Structures are given as C-alpha cells and as structure tokens.
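Researcher: Here's a chain I'd like modeled. Treat it as a single chain, no partners, no ligands.
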Amino acid sequence: MTFAIQQAAAPVFTRALNNLSAMIDKTLAAGVSEATLLEARLAPDMHPLPRQIQMASDSAKGAVARLAGVEPPAMPDTETTIAELKARIAATIAYVNSIDAAALDGAEDREVVLKFPGAEMKFTGADFLTGFALPNFYFHITIAYALLRANGAPIGKMDFLGGAR
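Model: Modeled as a single isolated chain. Structure tokens:
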C-alpha cells in the first residue's frame, strides 16, 4: 500500500489546527486576557497572534487547494476577536476536510506554482507539501504556540502535539 499525499496533508493540518484551537481555549481559561493575546508578538518586527493564525489558515487551505488543482477559498483577514479567529480555524478545518481524497490522486506529481511579486516558485506536489507548505504551516503554528506560552498559557508539548491519539 502506498502512502497517499492526502494522508500527509488533511489529517496533519486538521490535527494541528484543532490543537491550536484547544490551546487558545486553555489559555483563556487560565485567565490570560483576550486583549493581551490579540496584541501578542515575539518581536517588534513579527506579526501578532491574529496574523499568525490567519497565515496558518492560509497555508493549510492553500496547500490542499493547490494540491487538488483548485483555487482556495478567500478568507479576508478581518478577524479582530478570539471568537472570530477560532471561527476561522474551524472554517479552515472544514474546508481542508471537504477536499475529496480522489481530488488529490496524483497530486505528488502535479506541478504547483507559487507566484510572488517579482518571482515564482515551481514544485512537484510532493516537494511543495513536504518542502514548503508543511514547514510554512508549522512555522506559524509554532509561533502561535510560543505567543500563547510567552503570555502565560499553561500549555506544553503535549498540547501542541495533541496528546496520544
């Protein structure tokens, strides 16, 4: 049996996003204020928590969409509350899981092109997922975790990993 690209994408994104949502809940339950979280950043030149969540969302939905050969849904970056950010996480999970596994058949060899101002990057689907999409996604999830921890969240490695499943 071969390992399908869908197995390396949707469940991984879903688990990490669910874990992030649970860590946010645990942080708020510990008394860390929403205002503190909305302004939290690790360094002055880094994006605050809301943007880290938005970029993690964009990474996940963009990855599965590109691998399926479709356009990702637009999600304007307008969230200003934790409830709105958690709704975005939930919407991202729903979208990621809405992609039919059959749409990802052959995605490992499908060309994925990312266009940036003045540059473009070309990948095979497998290289895109393993060398760009997942590392980028986990960068933003990890920064969000660090922001929660730095602001007093009683969370640890098993919260990030989601415990034994």
